[in-house]
Amino acid sequence: MERSSGHTRMLMRSCLLAAAAAVASVMSTLPVSAADEVSQERLLNVDKEPGNWLHHHQNYSAHRFSTLKEVNRDNVKNLKVAWTMHLGGIEGGGIWSHGGLEGTPIAENGFLYVTDGWGSVYKIDAHGGRGALVWKMDPKTDRDWAGAVACCGVDNRGVALWGNLVISHTLDGRLIATNKETGQVAWQRTVADPDKGEVITGAPLIVKNMAITGVAGAEYGIRGWIAATDLSTQKEVWRTHTIPGKGEPGSETWKDSNNAAAAGGGSTWVTGTYDPATDTIVWGIGNPGPDWDNAYRPGDNLYTDSSLALDATTGKIKWHYQHTPNDPYDYDSVAENVLVDVPGPSGPRKLALEADRNGFAYAIDRTNGKFVWGLPFVKKVTWTKGLDPESGKPIEYDPNKSVQAYIASVTPSRTNMETHICPGNMGGKNWPPTAYNPDLKLWYIPVIESCNRIKVEVMTPDKLKPREFWTGGGPSQPFKITGSVTAIDVTTGKIAGKMETPFPNLGGILATPDLIFTGQPSGEVMALDAKSLQKLWEFNTGGGVNAPPMTFTVDGKQYVAILVGLGGAWDKWFIDATPELKKIQPGSMLYVFAL
Amino acid sequence: MMIFDRFPVAAGTLLASVVALNFSMLAAAYGQSAQAPTSDPTNAGKAVFGKANCMGCHKWHGNGGGGYGGDALSLRKTDLTRDQIIEVVGCGRPGTGMPFFTRGAYDEVKCHDMNRQDAGAQMPPEGGMFLRSKDIEAVADYVIAHIKGAGEPTYAECIAFFSSSSRVCDVYKTQAQKPDDATASRGKGQ
């Protein structure tokens, strides 16, 4: 009797404890106060809440700069792992044997929102110095359907917040709104169609109650677009094609008789930026297709390889700036355009900065799309002698020619069917985001220092088939590929420093007042001095870093978080250029560091 | 590791036929000793085609194609015999992206009469997993029975391959097989 009643008391006590814990956890997830509702006001003024990270690219200008400085150059050497969390989503599907992590966590009031490659969303409570999963929303992505037409991996770069909703994408083309408190799907809408080779990998951009979606698929003969969905009515507000329709301005830059424009590419799979002063969205546009057979599509092929400015309310095109006309290299311009204001002779200059796959960094006047400066940020460029200082076009560009050859001896073409080219088709700079320190006016580029070999395949209209590659050739990797972090002084348009790395930078960069954080696909996360780029701290995660770091506070303490799990294009298509990375195992893990 | 000059095809094919015998003897010695074929070799081979990720390069339909991975040849249009397929899968194809799937190939198991040193820059990549000789035979049987010589991929073939509820096959539906799900899959309210 005694013993059994003691046992009962124990049971009772643990029940009570459990109940108390349950109440506490409900309490901690309950407060649906106005402070937790994400509004346009908050998205415009993220500097007022430096402990949160509300935008994919940190702010509307894609600075990826945090003013937090509890962790700084004097103490960063003491940075340690605070906690980690295993995530899922490494399953294969379609042509992919496994997924990877490319996302940027979003942080709000001590909660993190992260995604895995198949688009599951995880809400994690980061209070109390550890991470606890609050909920996971699994969208049950149709893996074979989407994975078969994802050129470059099972990827999802993260979520956005709006009202009490978490807004996310899936590879199979959906836009999903999930209740932030419960993790229940509030609604979903199909935006892209994998039957046409369209998939979605980017994070949504939220502008004025709209979710802006970009699409991938230029290797599968899509005609790219950017689409805006009203988050209240769930209806499409506008959809702007990145390749003009027949008769529209720009259609004259598709001069062929094959209707190449209809399958002309122009993907938009990296989240763009927004300038509220002019209500303008600036978005990077991908390569034309077929990638390497540019004789199939004579003409400049607008708006491929361009920075495109759109009226946010209507989706109307305001201006464009094209980097590589009639691109024969797969040098897309999907990268984020970083919006910065720098002092100029006649008042502040409003620039849009873009680090292109073609190896050049560009500053464009974002009020009119005019070229300001450009320079190579990679060590080796073989396809052009440089940019025209007035127009910013490659010097060899000839507007009277419909098929550009640039430096013909290295350029893939129907008369040069096998060639070596630098940068290789991964870039330059790929999707991993840059960061900008507005105090130092330094812009940090995660660089792939590369060359590769291209074989051209002459395309004919009968080769264009739904859901099949439409590339006009392909790359192989006879050369070792390395990387660097390259800093550019935005006031001069000159390189301010370069920190070379043994492997390409496949993760991107976070800037803080006196540091930058980045990683390597061989596993290291590191902190560098913001000015000298000297390495001050390093930790090996034991996985492959393929995602950007970010920082936030909870309980008044600063943390640095990064997703770790090598996936994406690299370990399927480019691994031969970095044979050492073959030993990196697929993985899926969130690392969080603190002092 | 990718190679500039392709392994000369004519020489390769010649070698292949010479080596095929030699190779399968070795493979048999190395792997499971001769076993009775399973009652349904074609299904076992289909499983291998998926699990060894042949479909990662050759696609589910075997047509391969260009793209980011260079060109995986079409297995639908291949002229290779069963023995030659077994040999290509086991040893890979030197100087190309076709990986080898036999454990110990170019080490204990000689391929094209070469070891790693001999192969040098021509050394093909290693498959994502190793296959036993029984699995290699099964996948070759599957390729012969279902892929080699087939025309354009069809909806029926695709459904048979995936036997799942994935929409991966919808694109192969003929007009008659399509209700109006072309619009349904686009979502409403646009």
From TrEMBL, chain A:
A Pfam family annotated for this UniProt entry: PQQ
Cofactor(s) listed: Ca(2+); pyrroloquinoline quinone
Coiled coil (UniProt feature): none
Record: residues binding pyrroloquinoline quinone: 102, 157, 201, 217-218, 430-431
Signal sequence range: 1-34
Active site per UniProt: 330 (proton acceptor)
Cofactor stoichiometry and binding remark: Binds 1 Ca(2+) ion per subunit. Binds 1 PQQ group per subunit.
Any one Gene Ontology molecular-function term assigned to this protein's record: oxidoreductase activity, acting on CH-OH group of donors
GO cellular component: membrane
SUPFAM superfamilies named in the record: Quinoprotein alcohol dehydrogenase-like
List of residues binding Ca(2+): 219, 287, 330
Keywords tagged on the record: Calcium, Disulfide bond, Metal-binding, Oxidoreductase, PQQ, Signal
Top-level taxon in the UniProt lineage: Bacteria
InterPro entries on file: PQQ_b-propeller_rpt, PQQ_MeOH/EtOH_DH, PQQ_rpt_dom, Quinoprotein_ADH-like_sf
Entry-linked Gene3D superfamilies: Quinoprotein alcohol dehydrogenase-like superfamily
Cystine bridges: 151-152
Positions of the Pyrrolo-quinoline quinone repeat domain: 53-374
Sequence similarity: Belongs to the bacterial PQQ dehydrogenase family.
Protein name (database record): Quinonprotein alcohol dehydrogenase
Organism lineage: Bacteria, Pseudomonadati, Pseudomonadota, Alphaproteobacteria, Hyphomicrobiales
